[in-house]
Amino acid sequence: MAITARKPAAPATRTTTMKAAVVHDFTSPLTIEQKAIPVPGAGEIVVQIEASGLCHTDIHAAHGDWPVKPSPPFTPGHEGVGIVRALGAGVAEVALGDRVALPWLGYACGTCEYCVSGWETLCLEQKNMGYSMDGGFAEYAKAYARYVVKVPAGIDPIDAAPLTCAGVTTYKAVKVAGTRSSDLVAVFGVGGLGHLAIQYAAIAGGRVIAVDLIDEKLELAKQLGAEFTVNAAKEDPVAAIQKLGGADQAIALAVAPKAFEQAYASLRRGGTLVFVALPADNKVEIPIFETVLNGITIVGSIVGTRVDLKEVFELHAAGKTHVTVEERRLEDVNESIADVEAGRVPARIVFTM
Ligand SMILES: [Zn+2]
Ligand SMILES: [Zn+2]
Questions:
Q1: CB neighbour burial string for 137-171, b if at least 16 within 10 angstroms, e if fewer
Q2: Is the pLDDT of residue 6 over 50?
């Protein structure tokens, strides 16, 4: 066992209960309640959550919007960041006192062909934080030690939280898009994901055009490196992007099928459309003829691996990315959901415990 210079972590509180936000059914607001602090089994850890981001997926989970639904009661949250406070039997991956992130991919089998070929995010045995496992909207959360990612020193947990889903998801989407220097990259939707997608596309060398319906968000996009912006409520984004020659890649992050169709139509020949957002209305109309004749690629991208998240943290620690967050209390979870749904939040809401 390596001896680290780290100061011993403060002892966990003596209480055995914790505050958690719980979904009891898909049509009611979340309730804030006291629950027992989880106890780690073999290979598991318990993390004292410091910060936990609110992702649109949490809202879909709470509403049971998707074909595969979580089973209430459960606690959402897959952007939890905190300190390891308890170790189950056999845990060697992390130590007490480490700061770790608890991402969407809460568990994978580790042995299937997806897991061993760098596609653990496609594992059929996977469990997901805040969906099939209780997530980070609580003072403590249990996790599998092999599937948490250490947060490097120097990263504020409030920044680390959105990077844990919004960051890794858009970082992977840009990888999957294959962005290279001088490519025109259209980012549809400048929210928690979009504001990071813009930065990763720019880091990859792309010239970014950001599309949204809200001027404030487009202003943020400019500050974060978008060269062009289009307000789709005032101007046709397809015409605006085609005027620039068409997008080499378009990344669909807005939860509206119309934005997917616009993203598709904004591509140049040979372009790639990356599906990332998951609208409750699970349908989009794409023409076959133009897809074939124009050699269009359409690809879905789901979160990212532990390695992708590690790279996301490295970029942030190196000062290459900026996270825009609004801090709130866990008690404000229902108002926060309403604000995200109404588009009243510039980027990411993060609950601090
Ligand atoms: Zn998410
Ligand atoms: Zn697997």
A1: bbbbbbbbbbbbbbbeeebebbbbbbbbbbbbbbb
A2: no
